[in-house]
């Protein structure tokens, strides 16, 4: 029976220097040779994901924007966006909470009302005034704060969307209400005629929670947030210790059978 491995990128498959070790690549390739489908699920936009995933693994499925879009190579298999009106409502709510640093992802481009270098490094972006910015839909809205964003902010978001707070509480990622990594994984399960029990998933942060809870085997990284570890079936080594590969070589062998 065909099975599926789903791995987050940052803090999970990627080391702290944003590379994937030769050992991890070899282990994932060996899984493919056993007929197992490898999928990557990340909050990152496609332009970043495809740059970070090693060439030898580029033929796999990639879930971006926390589940808002699914790619295989250049083909889009699924996408879910929020309307411009909803984005403007989010901007209004953010400002009412004095959260003024806002980014929007539109058609794999980043638009922002502040210098994103302080948050996302050298990511190219276009500076905009969102009240005048002409667009129809967006894949994701991001709110950045120097201090922790509270859960109360999430309760005031428009019903069409949902937010998840990551990065030690300083980043809120907002997508369509139907968008989660797990919902995109469920779409792929239908595509491959697989069950949730056929999936092993690896993650490290709050946006991995649902997929870790719902898949057949949920694995938290050694560097994961405590809340994720508490719902995972297993905790493996850290991302800098090739935790994904270590688990697949050890406990994963039992699951594959």
Instruction: Bin the strand percentage.
Output: 25-35%
- CA radius of gyration is 18 Å
Please work out how many helical segments DSSP would assign: 11
Highest-level CATH class of the largest domain: Alpha Beta
What is the CATH architecture descriptor of the largest domain?
3-Layer(aba) Sandwich
Distance between the termini: 9 Å
State the order of secondary-structure elements, H for helix, E for strand: EHHEHEEEEHEEHEEEHEEHEHEHEHH
How would you describe this structure in keywords?
6-stranded mixed beta sheet, Hypothetical Protein, Haloacid Dehalogenase-like Hydrolase, Chain: A, domain 2, single chain, 2 domains, globular, Rossmann fold, 8-stranded mixed beta sheet, alpha/beta, 257 residues
Task: Give an overview in words.
The chain is an alpha/beta fold and about 260 residues long. The chain has 2 domains: about 5-80 and about 180-255, HAD superfamily/HAD-like (Rossmann fold); about 80-175, Hypothetical Protein, Haloacid Dehalogenase-like Hydrolase, Chain: A, domain 2 (2-Layer Sandwich), CATH 3.30.1240.10. Helices cover about 30% and strands about 25% of the residues. It has 11 helices and 16 strands. The strands form 3 sheets. It has an 8-stranded mixed β-sheet with strand order 5-4-3-2-1-14-15-16, sandwiched between helices. It has a 6-stranded mixed β-sheet with strand order 9-8-7-11-13-12, with helices on one face. Strands 6-10 form a two-stranded antiparallel ribbon. A hairpin with a 4-residue loop joins strand 12 and strand 13. Helix 2 (about 20-35) runs parallel beside helix 10 (about 245-250). The protein is globular and about 55 Å long. The termini are close together. The mean pLDDT is about 90.
């Amino acid at each position: 029976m065909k099975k599926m491995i789903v791995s987050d990128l940052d803090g999970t498959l990627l080391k702290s220097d944003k590379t994937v070790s030769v050992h991890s690549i070899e282990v994932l390739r060996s899984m493919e040779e056993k007929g197992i489908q490898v999928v990557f699920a990340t909050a990152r936009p496609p332009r970043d994901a495809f740059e970070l995933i090693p060439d030898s693994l580029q033929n796999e499925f990639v879930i971006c924007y926390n589940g808002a879009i699914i790619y295989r190579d250049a083909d889009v298999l699924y996408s879910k966006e929020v309307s411009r009106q909803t984005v403007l409502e989010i901007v209004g709510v953010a400002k009412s909470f004095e959260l003024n640093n806002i980014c929007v992802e539109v058609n794999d481009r980043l638009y922002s009302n502040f210098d994103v270098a302080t948050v996302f490094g050298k990511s190219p972006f276009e500076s905009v005034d969102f009240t005048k910015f002409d667009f129809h839909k967006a894949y994701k809205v991001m709110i950045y704060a120097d201090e922790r964003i509270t859960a109360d902010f999430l309760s005031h978001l428009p019903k069409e969307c949902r937010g998840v707070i990551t990065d030690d509480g300083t980043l809120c990622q907002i997508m369509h209400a139907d968008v989660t990594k797990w919902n995109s994984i469920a779409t792929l399960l239908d595509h491959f005629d697989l069950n949730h029990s056929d999936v092993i998933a690896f993650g490290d942060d709050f946006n991995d929670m649902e997929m870790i809870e719902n898949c057949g085997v949920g694995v938290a990284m050694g560097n994961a947030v405590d809340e994720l570890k508490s719902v995972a079936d297993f905790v493996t080594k850290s991302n800098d210790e090739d935790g994904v590969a270590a688990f697949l070589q050890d406990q994963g062998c039992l699951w594959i059978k």
